[in-house]
Amino acid sequence: xxxxxxxxxxxxxxxxxxxFRDGRWTPTWGFDGTYLGPTLRAERGEKVRVRIRxxxxxxxxxxxxxxxxxxxxxxxxxxxxxxxxARSPHWTVAQPAxxxxxxxxxxxxxxxxxxxxxxxxxxxxxxxxxxxxxxxxYGVDDLPVVVQDVRFDGDRFDHGRRIMQNVGFLGDxxxxxxxxxxxxxxxxxxxRLRLLNASTARTYSFGFPDxxxxxxxxxxxxxxxxxxxxxxxxLSPGERAEIVVRVRPGERAVLRSFPQDxxxxxxxxxxxxxxxxxxxxxxxxxxxxxxxxxxxARLAEQETPDGGGAVRARHFDLRRSGINGxxxxxxxxxxxxxRGATETWTxxxxxxxxxxxxxxxxxxxxxxxxxxxPPAALRGPKDTVFxxxxxxxxxxxxxxxxxxxxxxxxxxxxxxxxxxxxxxxQFAVV
Length: 430
Ligand code: C2O
Ligand code: CU
Ligand code: CU
What we know:
mainly beta; Immunoglobulin-like; five-stranded mixed sheet; binds CU-O-CU linkage; binds copper (II) ion; oxidoreductase activity; Multicopper oxidase
């Protein structure tokens, strides 16, 4: 902490080797360590500064996914850090408690940088949320769960994309927090999992094989109005969710990803990962569990706009070639929005494969999915949404950050292969 109260973090991007399997050392990249990065944590109203040093031999960036912050601090492709150089973005946290994350964003190379291990969680807190009776002991009953899929070829990662995998790289096994075959001992009745899909292309449908339900309490940008019980929850790349699951004494509860009927056509289910199933994390419950208080009936007021007073409606057609028919161009600002304005954005997957849609800087509200009210899983603050082929979503967004006509923010498909190929556009707030 600096004199003026700024909370300071140090991150060094570096290359190294990681022992995922006994005695086998895989070349990886990480922040500080050799794979992934530390969980950063700050509070609403707090000033933060992150001192980033690039110890890699190529240029990269660090983007704060889900964070509301000035465009110059956002870590998009315009603000790369050369090898050996440093950069210290800083901002004031001005949003509710949430599970965010950080990862590189160099134009055309994001998939590769994330696959090698550059990603970490950024948890935000606020006073109201801290006062709620939720599991909140980090690493005890409040667990970060960073889910990635990988494939090995000998000692190395195999990042090759199979010919029919038009969504991008798909691995043949999953890791949690950089660990293969992960399990966690728990000793509380209720366990909160902060799920982050940090995979580059794979979409998961989480649930438990015994059919138990769990409570969704938070989405990308913070808590829901009230807990929502469900048996399955889909997360596409970049999306987060906070769920609370009840465990029984002595049991082993397995968080699994299930096949997805509504993922796409038979081709996509087969080759795009929709038919796949993985055991993601085993929770090993102690014989005696500490009692947990019941979840609060009400969690948080929604701060996202409800679409009332929207001054502008925009439309975005997603196709693998680009957004609205155009691939990303670094020197073209596609959309200009007015500071303080609320808009509706209608996003349509006009393609034969699944995509998703992520917007920098804002948390938005999903108003409609194919003309109907959104399901519970899409009722909290969101910055990334999954769109199966043929899906249309109407979103309400408000842009209330500082104006900056020259530094744009991004919106893009977060299937990183697609993003790198050019499924990305830029907007400036003026
Ligand atoms: Cu998670 Cu443009 O990023
Ligand atoms: Cu982002
Ligand atoms: Cu896509």
